[in-house]
Each structure stands twice: as structure tokens, then as C-alpha cells.
Design goal:
The structure holds 3 protein chains of 3 kinds. By secondary structure, chain A is of the alpha/beta class. Helix content of chain A is 53%, strand content 11%. Chain B has 2 domains: 105 residues, Nucleotidyltransferase, domain 5 (2-Layer Sandwich), CATH 3.30.420.40; 144 residues, Nucleotidyltransferase, domain 5 (2-Layer Sandwich), CATH 3.30.420.40. The model of chain B has no long low-confidence stretch (mean pLDDT 89). In chain B, helix 3 packs parallel to helix 5 and helix 6 packs across helix 7. By secondary structure, chain B is α/β, with parallel strands linked by helices. Chain C is of the alpha/beta class. In chain C, strand 5, helix 13 and strand 6 form a beta-alpha-beta unit. The chains are: A alpha/beta, B alpha/beta, C alpha/beta. At the B-C interface, helix 5 and helix 6 of B face helix 5 and helix 18 of C.
Amino acid sequence: MSAPLSYDTVVSERRQLLQTIITPETSLVGYIYPHTPLELFFAHHLTPTLLWADHKTSGAYEASLQTFCCAYSRNLFSQRAKEQLPKLSAIAFPGGTCDSLQNLGDVWRARFHEDTVLRLTYPVARDEAAITYLTEELRGFSNHLEVTFGSKFSIDKYREAVALTAEFRAAAQFIVAARIFQPSIYPYPEYAKLIRQFFTAPGPHTLQQVEQVASEVQHELRTNQLIPSAEALRYGLLKGQIPELTATPERKGPRIVVVGGMIDPEGIAVLFENAKINAEVEEAQIVLDILSFSFRTVFHPPSNLQGDPFHELAQSIISAPAEPTQEGLPDRLHFLEVIFDKLKIDGLIIAEHSFCDPDQFEIPDMLKIAEKKKVLTVRLPLDPEFSDRARIEGRLQSFFETLSVKR
Amino acid sequence: MVKQSNYGIGIDVGSTTTKAVLIDSTGKVRARYLLATGASAKKSIQRCLDELVSQSKQDLSGITMISTGYGRSQANFVSKSVTEITCHGIGIHSLNKEIQTLIDVGGQDSKVIRIGSNGRPTDFELNDKCSAGTGRFLEVMAQVLEIPIQELGSLALKAKSPSVISSTCTVFAESEVIGRIGAGDTPANIAAGIHKAMAAKIATLSQRVGVVKPVAVTGGVALNPGFRFYLAKQLQTELWVPDEPQYTGALGAALLAIDTHE
Amino acid sequence: MSQKTTTEPPKEKAYRKLYTSKLLRETMTLHILSTKTASQNGRLVWVTSGFPVEIPVAFDTVAAYPEQYGAIVGSEKCGPLLCGFAEELGFSQELCSYARSSIGSVKKPEQSPLTGLPIPQALLACNNICGTVLGWYEAVSEMTGAPVYLVDTPPLEGDQPPHHLAYVKSNLEGLITFMSETFNQPYDEEKLLQVADLSNTAVNLWTKSLEACKNKPSPLNCADRFLSMAPIVALRGTQQAIDFYQAFYGEVKERVKQGLGAIREERVRLLWDNIPPWFTIYNFFNTLAKKGVVFPADSYTHAWSANIPRGEALESIAQVYSKIWLNKGLSAKIDKMCNLIKDYELDGFVLFSVRSCKRYSLGQMVTKEVITRRTGVPGVIIEGDMVDSQQYNEAQAETRVDALLEMIL
């Protein structure tokens, strides 16, 4: 029995990691949306860092935002108000993705005049017109970066960055696919940590760690002759489609999928592991998550280096699967149904992010599909501070108890 | 004292009260005790155990104990902790094998549980973290009305036309009740309005799991006749209530302890 | 002309009732009946309040407005009941109460006011008012099988760049294809222009009525505007809307001419921000009317004041509907409210923080500070919801507004 994980360690490690990439020359740009084009920042000699919620920060937003603002936005705002964010040259907000984040950018500007607030607006569609629109938004955004930071778009830097993210994504996607076949090959909390490290401090160092793990996983799979199956699955997931599995996935315990939005995957991992210990179901495994800062950030098709960079980036962003604001609901429900059908899933954890409209709207339909497919579900109403943690762990523990009966 | 190895103890450490049950291997209750949890869960657990010893005149050392409830992790000497969802399922099933749906309304939590064929839950739903739809809601309202909580339910049954209490948020409802008092509504009508609002909230929670009959109600609030009346009306079904509904979770834990032992 | 004296109640109330409210009721009842017939004939669409309704009207379909239905649900005080039906299905209580009550009424029409909105053949959403409409309509689509068409108008910062206009226009072209295919009818640009003309005429009458409230005393109070905006929302682009607003504007002009205010004694003039609490709309504004408080302007009913300019039809529509101020961010909203305070000579403002409506409400704390700084008039934020009365605390709201009045008087 392993010791319960502590979330405090996760947060402090994250801070330390950021320190390793900051030099006097580094211009850090914080971002908060899974489809932010990292490559564009690198092309302008900027370093993007994903701003994670901090579970220990709370209570500094009340003078500026109401409680019904999305919990993640509130947490970030509190971090800023308490000056707990890393030193940033700018912060990039998404536009058009949800009402809370849309307004947060405006409130941020009004409250923190000294901050450089950037906004990149996304279309809510996936057709050619949407790609054309986003292409021009990205081009305009690039011009804006040039004016704001005085650094021109460098095609060399851009290509380097495309290679960096493409290599990271390929390795991370492979690990995800491999874990679906053999979840014990690499524990979920470790996977979540790898992802966090890269998005906190994207660079050769963090890339190398992911590639190292991917190669170890590959080695392991080779002995079981699972590599072709894992690769086929990886390509399928990239298109939001899942092929028939050509090998039987490992099933030592209940196989669990986690869905949700801007919830920290490591936070989920901590809750999951602790509840497992309490319920004595150590074989239960998260075999796949569809969270914003994991699946939705990792499964982007690579950009083609040949074409117009802005068009290529737009194409990659728009065609990434499982995004509630771009993909229609029927497609996402179908994707979940296929996951249940083909990946031998026993349970579904719905991480319900407090006051997140796009995610909360689809929960009832997800529940319906899970019921149809006889997949047991649990809803975890969460905010980044894990307030009410005892009750959440109780829900998870009950879920495991119910699951073990079903099996 | 006789040492009994084929006994089981269940301790349900709730937010308001702590309950302990001692049973023998046939499932017969040998001793039980309930007291307010108070500030220290550990202390109340110890007092419960002491009471089981004195009631049963047994040496309890070595007996398998299972803890449940909100403070289940506080009982660190038990063999295992199991959530109140599972324990309530097991407990109610042992009391009435027919029950398909259990609604448990405690001090800080309310839950709806679908009971499987062996008493194990097959699905469940809990209230969110606000105290709407829990015993706490009724306690606060009783205080506002200056009526002992034990009398709130029977008072509600005397209502001629229940007041409209639209809010189930405890804080908002409090000022709404004060408003109704100011408007001259009778305490009975206000009490009825309070129970109606609470029953509506619990009914919504129940619909999420699906209400399959027969339905049982447990937890401290199950003792409240006003709540039972309005919930039955809202769900359009009869409700089965065990003799001592507060002990259901502890009983389930004790039964699990016997199972573990065997 | 003599009507006004004959309709006076024996005991003078603090507010004056509009005699055109009878016509309003008739107009809206006919509209509701027409939506039922349209649904049976396979020609009903549901649209969001900021949708370019001129296009579906030009396709001879009838539009029903779920947001307006939400207002009815609220006024009938059955918000918690209907929202509860949606919550039973698993929709979070944290979601918009228009969405929840709408979903609830689709689930249990027999327990809903007017037995719910008739089932649509298409769901037409435009996200210029919020992003929530998409999740809402997609959920209704799963329940009814009616397809969703989204006109995507990404939020604007500053002027509308050409690629934004081109994108929205392409969305409108898509809408036309969608409508042609769904309702088996070819697109007729001339007809669209005619509808746009009708729409402009009604909007002009509406705008003039709103602007008449610059007069002292103000001929209209908040509840008057919120109720009589129904046709501008639901019947824009039809002759019925024009007929109503001609009569309505006539009454407004008459009140101005005679120096009659919406309330008997006008002492304080305030600005209202956001959707009103429908379940207590009369009670709220009439209680304040007794204290001499009138609301000559609000940020909400002015949302339909944009006109479709002459020129290429789709391009004009793409421009107008992209520039709805909710789609333009906080600074546009603050500018607009400051202008209203200046133009209507208002003494203060009430910002209603509506828990359902994140796009409208998040930012109000900053707004309050900025408006006071710029205009010098005080304001207050009250909290609640437009339909879900469980989220509203009357005593708390009253205390806050009273405190504001004490600052002004």
C-alpha cells in the first residue's frame, strides 16, 4: 500500500520547475486555455507557461468577481491579487470559449493596469470558414506580439517550436495509448506529472523526460508485441475516432475514464489514489482522461511546416478532438460512447468543475450514455481548492465500493 | 466479562450525532448508543464504545469494528472504514429486504441510494456542499421560529395553508422565514412551508437516481413526521421508516464487520 | 383621449398602468397561438434574443423565444419547479435558469405554463449575447431532435475587422442554406430586405419610445419597458410589431405631452442594469415607485436599438448582430451605461447581479466603481436571479436599494 499522495508536494514542485527555466532573458507569457498556440509565442522569443490553479489560494477575488464566476478563473484571479503568480511579461486569455473567461480578461485589465493582457479569440465551429477566421486571428495576434514585445516573428524559432511540441505530443500520445492497453505500465499520477512538467516549462529538458518514459513504455510494449496496436489507437484518438483494438487490454481491476474540463489532472490523481486506499481497491486504474489540461492539450494534430504558419496552427487547433466549444455535442457524445464500447470501461468519473457552463451542459447526456452502456458513474463537484475534500473523497470511495460489487 | 469474537461493531460518525451498534453473528443487536458528535469525534467514539461495553457486559477488544460516516477516518483503531452509502444500503436491506430506494437525510448530508439485490448500492446521489436539503436546514429554521427542533415536524402537520418558502438556501430561507413571520403567517404554516421546500429539494435529488418503490427513509430527519408527510406527497409514494432510523448506517457497518470477520 | 381618465382606478396607485398593455397582451397571445400552428405545420424555429431573426422570418417560419418563455415562467413564479425538472435530469443548479427552466419545460410540458413552448423544427442560436446559448440549445436538440444552427459571432474588441465580418457573413450564408434545406424553400433576398425594413420601422418606434424617457417625469418605468419589449424581441420583422409600437409610442407621446409620468411622484431617477427578477418584477419596481423612484433607462431594453443599414443584406446583418454591446466587452458596456446616466439625467444606478447570466454580470463590481468615478452618481449591486427565485433574497435586495436611496435623497 503506497502512502497517500499530497497535493502540496505537487504545487511546490511546480513552482520549483518554473524556476529552472527562468533566466533574466526569459519573457514568460502565462496562458490558461488548452488550445493556446505555444509555437507562436516561441516564434516571438517568448516562453509560454500554463497557469495552473493553486489549491491553497482562495478568497482574494471577492471584490472583483462574483462567486458564480468559474472556479478556475476565481482561483487565478486570487493568485494574481495575492501576487502569487510567477513573474509574467503578459497573460493570454482566450476569447469566445466561455463567458467567465471572456469577462475575466476584461476585469483583469480593469483591475491590474500594469499587466499586459493579451486575448486570442477562437471560433465556435470546425469548418473551413472557422479555420480561415482563426488563421487571421493568429496573424493579428502575432502582429500584436511583435508590437508589444518588439520581437519579430522568427521562422527558425517557429520551426524549432513546432518540432518541440510535435515531439512532445507524439511521445505523450503514445504513453496515453499504451496505458489504455496496459494501465499498470506507467501510473496515472506519474503521467499527469509529466504533462504538468512540460506545460509548465516547455523545453528540451522536459521534452527529454517525456521521451525517456515513452521509450521505456515502448520497450515494455515490444515484449508484449503491443506497439502496432498502441500506434493504431493513438492515430485514432487524434482524429477523435477509436479503431477496433487489435489486442485485449489489461484488466486487473476496474478500468476508469475521467471526463471534465479545466481540472488539474494531478489533483484528480491525488483524490483517486487516496480513495482507492480507503476503499481497498488498489487495482482500479484511470485508463484515460478527457480533461482540458491533459487529453485536450496533448491530442493536437501536428502542424505542417510547409504551409503558412498561421493557417497550419489554426488547422491544428480547430481539428483537435473533444473540445466542447468547437466540436458539436453529438460528436463528443459519440466519442464517449465509442470509448465505452471499445476500451472496456467499467466506471466514469465526471469531474464537474464548479460554474463551468460548457462542461456542465453535457453532463446529463454523458450520464445517459453511461447508463445505456452500463458504465457506473460518479459526479465530483470540484473547485481548484478542493474545498469539501472529505465529502469528495467519500463520493469516490462510495463509487469504488459500488463498483467492486458490480464486478 | 466474556470475550466474544463472533460479534461485530459498527460506528457511524455523523456530523451531528455518533451512533454505535454491537451485533452478534446472527445479526441481533446486542447494544446500541447514540450521542451528539460535538467538537471531538474521537471522544464521542470512545464514549459510544464504553457504553456498548457497559450495556452488553462484553469485553470488546478483538471484535471487528467498521467505521462509517463523515468522521469515519477519525476512528483510527477500526479494522476498516466504509462509506455511509454502502453501510446504509446494507443496513436497510437487513431490516427490510423489499426496499429498492433509500433516502437518508442526516445533519449535513442527504443521500439517495438505489439498493442492489444483496443490499449493496448500485447507484447513489448526494446533495452538494450547501446545507439545503439537510437536517441542518431544519435546525436553523427551528431556531428562527424559536421552536424546539423535535416539535417542528408535528407543528407543520397542523398547518392550514403552508407558507411559500421558495428558497432552499439556508441563509436566504432564514430571511424569507423572518419575512413570513413579519407578514403574520402562523408558525404552523411557516413550518409546513419549510418542510415543503425541503421535500422538494430531496425529491429532485431522488429523481436523479430514479425513485423505484418501495422507498425507505432513514437518518435523524426520518423521525420528523412533517418531513415524512411532505416527502411522501412530493414523491407520491408511501415511505417505510425503520423503528430507529438513525442507526441504519451503524447497523450496516456492524453487519459488514461480521462479514469481514467471517 | 378620454380613456386615461376612465381607466383611472378609484384609489390612486403609485404607478400608472399603460392602456396599451391590453393590446400588448392581445398581440402576444396571437403570437403564441401562431407558434402553436407553426409547430404543427412544421415551420417553427426557436431563436435566441440576439439572433438575426429577419432571416427565419424571410423564410416564412415563425420564431418562438425561449428567453421570453423564461420570463413567463419567472412571472408565473414556477421557476424553481421547472428548473427542478432539469436538475432531475442531471443539469447543474449552477447553470443558467433560462436554460434550466426551458429544458425542464421540454421534459414536462404538461406541468409548464402554456404547456411549454411548441416543439420546434430548428433551433437557431447566436452567441452574441453569451456562450451559454449553445450548450442550452444543444441540450434541447438532444431532447427534441430539432437540429441546431449556430451563428457564431466571436466577441469583438474595438472595431470589426474584415476577417470577422467575412466569417460572420459566411455563417449567415450557411444559415440560409440550412433554412432552405430544412424548410424546403429557396432564399429570396428581396423578401429579406422587406423584412429588414419592417424590422427597422418597429425598432425605430421602440427606440423613440425609449428615448422619450429622457423627459421628466419619465413616461415609462422599468417594468413597462421590460413587458412591452416582448414584440420587439419576438415579432421583429413583422407588421404586428409595427402596429403595436405605433400604438405604444402614441401613448408614450401622449404621456409626455400631458406631463404624465410612469409613476405619480418622481423623486429619484435610476438606471437599471441586467435582466429583471421576473418573479417579483411588479413588486420590486412598484415598491420603489411608492418611494418616488423611477427607472427611465436600463441597459437591457436598449439592446434592440440597432438598425439594419441599407446595402448588401447579409453583410449589413453581419455587422449589426456582431456589434450587440454584450459582444463587445466590458468597456463598451460601461461607456453605454455612463451615456445613459448622462443623457437621461439619472441620479444613480442599480446593478442586478444575475447568477444565471455570467456574460452580463461578471464585471459589475468593476463597472460600479468606474461609473461612479466617471459620472459622480452612486450605485448599488443587488444579487439574485431572473427566474430561479431560490437565488433571490428580497429583504437583502430591499435593504441595499434603500441604502442607495439614503445616499441620494
